[in-house]
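Two records follow; treat each independently.
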Amino acid sequence: MLYGELQRVTLGESEFNGFRFTVKNPPKTAILRLPSSIEMIARIDGQKSIRSSIGRRKSSTETIPNPKADIAFFEALRIAGDDFDEFEARNAIGKLTDVDVLDCQREGDQYRITLKTPFCDVAHWVKIPTDKDIYFYRRSVVAPTELPHGKEELRYRASAGIELYDSVFAKAEGYADQAAIPAHHKFAVAGELSQQCSYDSEFDPNS
């Protein structure tokens, strides 16, 4: 299955283009659609994490749940079926939108970044960004707010990752619609690309 390839599913006597999610206890079923990029941008921008210093220049980061946002997002995606509570909604949303970086390989003047999605693995080929691109991405992708006791509130800006991705995009594979790559996939690719640019430094003080 390609990412975004619609399934024809039934609920009762009706058929829908969507994806079925079930809860075993209590028994529930809902049909969800894929979120739009606009919806995913709003969700990324609305999430926040708390970063705490744990000493020796180390820190831990914890994502802060937002039950109201989870319920609202679930309701926006639901096209049929039962109501889910905040825990069921968060679980369903995670299964539908989860994305992880599987691999990143340098191929000449490009990187091939592979993502794992609930549907299939997808691949992105992106050009090596300029130092300017990386600088502005890193400066704007996270908005930190200092809190007491050595903590920071972090809010992410999806637009920074999307702008970086769009500026270096070469091609992608694994999508039902190649012209509609999801915003959260672009955001994940941009984050991995930024890390790889740090690892690929050619500076050698002993040369």
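The next record belongs to a different protein.
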Amino acid sequence: MKRTLIVLGLAATGLLAEAAPAYADVTFFLGLSTTPESRPARGFAGGINFLLFGFEFDYANTSADEAAGAPNLKTGMINGLIMTPTKTSLYLTAGGGFYKESLTGASVTSFGTNIGGGVKISLFGPVQVRIDYRIFNLRGDARFPHPQRFYTGLNLHF
């Protein structure tokens, strides 16, 4: 009897509780990769966010600088986020995916991981500015296995 009352109580709580809001967002960004030389990076991210947690896919393309020996770097990562549930949202992120590094005809494609964090600052309505910093750990034969990227982007959530 005690077990039945507990199950009924939990079921009633679940039915009457309000679900946490979820929203999707997309970010288009421009930034810099500072390893080994400072060069432009651009890309986009799209994901779904719940109250404290979220998931996103992020793609970025960092330009090569052949004179400095800095390769072109393309990354595609799936990340998890932990964020503050406030209007200005701080977040930490970690994830993994693929990368392709190429310079003067030679290239390597393999798996990589990343960690980082940032902030999403509300401007008006669903528009936010996103500022993000990432450190990558590229497996395989990457010329520079620990590149860093800093970017600023326009974020739209819906």
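Discussion point: The first strand starts at residue 23 and ends at 33. How would you locate this feature using only the token line?
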